[in-house]
């Protein structure tokens, strides 16, 4: 599902990952992280996709850098990151960007 258009400026945290073969607890943890993020002040939404070869891209949107910092330090999120390094990911990158423009198209409009 796509996040509705947002009013800039806001921030995007782009998490790109390559998964390992193991899957133990991954789906449950991912769902829990989204549920927790949705309760965080400053969280605006998220979009995620994963290809058959294990490449995943999740973009979460945040009001400001302070909100991103609070989420980064959230205790369950920190534990999930540790598990990601030790169990689920072969590689990942995190990129943080300030969004200056937001526009799009929908055939439904």
From TrEMBL:
Protein name, as recorded: Heme-degrading monooxygenase HmoA
Gene3D superfamilies named in the record: 3.30.70.100
Keyword entries, A-Z: Monooxygenase, Oxidoreductase
InterPro entries for this protein: ABM_dom, Dimeric_a/b-barrel, Jasmonate_Hydroxylase-like
PANTHER family: ABM DOMAIN-CONTAINING PROTEIN, BLL5343 PROTEIN
Domain ABM: from-to ranges: 9-81
Gene Ontology terms for molecular function: monooxygenase activity
Pfam families, per the entry: ABM
Top-level taxonomic group: Bacteria
């Amino acid at each position: 599902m796509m996040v509705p258009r947002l009013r800039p400026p806001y921030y995007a945290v782009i998490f790109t990952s390559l998964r390992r073969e193991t899957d133990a607890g991954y789906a449950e943890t991912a769902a829990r992280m989204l549920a927790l993020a949705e309760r965080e002040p400053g969280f605006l939404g998220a979009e995620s996709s994963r290809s058959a070869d294990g490449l995943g891209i999740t973009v979460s949107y945040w009001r400001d850098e302070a909100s991103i910092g609070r989420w980064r330090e959230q205790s369950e999120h920190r534990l999930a990151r540790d598990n990601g390094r030790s169990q689920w990911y072969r590689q990942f990158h995190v990129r943080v960007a300030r969004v200056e423009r937001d526009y799009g198209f929908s055939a439904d409009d």
